[in-house]
Amino acid sequence: MKFGLKKEDRKYKDTNPEELNFNIPKEEKIIEEIQEKEFNPWDYIRVVNVRGEPEYQAQPDEKVIIAHRGNPILGNKHPMLKNTMKERERVIAEYQKDLNEDLAINGPISLTLKDIAKDIIENKQKIALACFCSPCDCHAQTLIPAIMDIIEKINLKKVNKIKI
Prior knowledge:
The protein is mainly α.
């Protein structure tokens, strides 16, 4: 038995997508698409040094969020016992465990990262996570992928709300 659509059932076959009216003027639709393509959240967040060389410090257009031990939520609670790379890797790994546990229960770190993600998405706000470690490896670097995951989830929710 052969299955196929009759010619009269193919009412959208020859439809030009540009002719469809979605109640958005063509120019506005193009502008929105360009803005969406140009927005890359990875360009809106970085880790900077609280002090030191100017190239490692925050820029005037960046919102500075303290990520060192002085911040009771984002600061790394695991002190370095020696000033070695191996020790630095250990405390970053310990912080990553804390971060994963917090994200799993939607804890205070998670809520703070959601606020940062919303600021990036809604306001196109550049963020500088400030710590004393930068430019060396830093626990604050583990926050960036977590923020990007949150941004991705927020964007997926927006897309799913739009879909019919």
